[in-house]
Amino acid sequence: QVLLSESGGGSVQAGGSLTLSCTASERTFTMGWFRRAPGKGREFVARINWHFGTTSYADSVKGRFTISGVNARNAVSLQMNALKPEDTAIYYCAASGLDTANPNTYHDWGRGTQVTVSS
């Protein structure tokens, strides 16, 4: 089991920025960020695949969020710029053995960190 720990959530006004960080207890194939807004299901945000060296983003965050690898395959950050009220959610870091955006294929999850964007 991969243990994941997120940090960096908080409250900002619309247009502001936040950086989330996630550290895993061991190397992973893919690390992803997901979010769950109140009353909604889990939504893919971004992922990084270490093997292929690729990143992928949901259309809703493309151009505003950037996922980066830190410390080679066991830590990632998510730089979030131009935040909108609709970005308000609990953000989760997760690990997968596949290169996928499907949350059901991610086997280990962090506890999540709250991001609140006010208008």
What does the model show?
The chain is mainly beta. The chain is 0% helix and 54% strand. The chain is built from no helices and eleven strands. Strands 2, 4, 5, 6, 9, 10 and 11 form a seven-stranded mixed sheet that branches. A four-stranded antiparallel sheet has the order 1-3-8-7, with no helix packed on it. Strand 7 (65-70) and strand 8 form a beta hairpin.
Termini separation comes to 39 Å
**Strand share of the residues?**
over 45%
Instruction: Give the number of DSSP strands.
Output: 11
Sheet with the most strands, sense and barrel status: 7 strands, mixed
Radius of gyration: 13 Å
Order of helices and strands: EEEEEEEEEEE
Estimate the helix proportion, in percent.
under 10%
How many H/I helices?
A: 0
Task: Indicate the mean pLDDT.
Answer: 95
Helix vs. strand class: mainly beta
Q: Which oligomerization state do the chains in this entry correspond to?
A: single chain
Shape: globular
Task: Report the uncertain regions.
Answer: none
